[in-house]
Amino acid sequence: MIGKQMLDLSGKNAFVTGIANKNSIAWGIAQQLHQAGANIGVNYLPDEKGRFEKKVKELVEPIAPDIIVPCNVQDDALMEEMFKAIANKWGKLDIFVHCLAFADKQYLEGDFSIVPRDAFSKSLEISAYSLVHFARLAKPLMKEGGSIITLSYIGGVKVMPSYNLMGIAKSALEMNVRYLAAELGEQNIRVNGISAGPIRTLASSAVGGIRDMIKHMDNAAPLRRTVTQEEVGNTAAFLASNLSSGITGQIIYVDAGFEIMGM
Fold this sequence. Notes:
Blueprint: E1 13-16, H1 25-35, E2 39-44, H2 51-60, E3 67-70, H3 76-90, E4 95-98, H4 117-138, E5 146-152, H5 164-184, E6 189-196, H6 210-220, H7 229-240, E7 251-254
Helix pairs in contact: 1-7, 4-5
């Protein structure tokens, strides 16, 4: 008889990027990883007035993270400092969660062909290349294998209204998942993505018509609803655990089944 397995991340070290406020999907993931027993580390985006630092530190206080550090993915020195802090505190890293994306709001709608070179490059650097850079820095710390998880959206594989430039960034991100999974598999490091349904977050507020998209999900998705941060967090906890030991290079849809529908 096969023994019963439970999702247990006790003793695992998990670093979660991209927490902005209580509605962040990253915050939902951090809470579920913490509930499963993982040690948590988080970052905040530094700014001159320290607003993000204060907000993030207050929000994450209930889960008592071991590490809270600044990080801007456009600053190589800050990225390296973040991983030095992880190495100094934990010595090893088991789980890394990438929840970062950016596109200039004015290029999320209208004609896609007007997107200028600098806006295109910046969006792909922050939204997609950052995963590659993080994986390179995480690799030496995942001495016993590990799980790298990122967040995508169906707009990376199908045209969605008011998504434009971000759709291209998510498409690149999903291919990054596959190439990184192929490279890192020999070290037992798994790389997967979660494609979540639309959720009202700080990031999604930039997408025009987000309320209409959620209403459409309520009518069109097989489960007749959209999903919650907790549900995405549960899937992340599964992908971070040994229960998903045979899964890598995949994009898991957590969208109440919307992806399967033709109309």
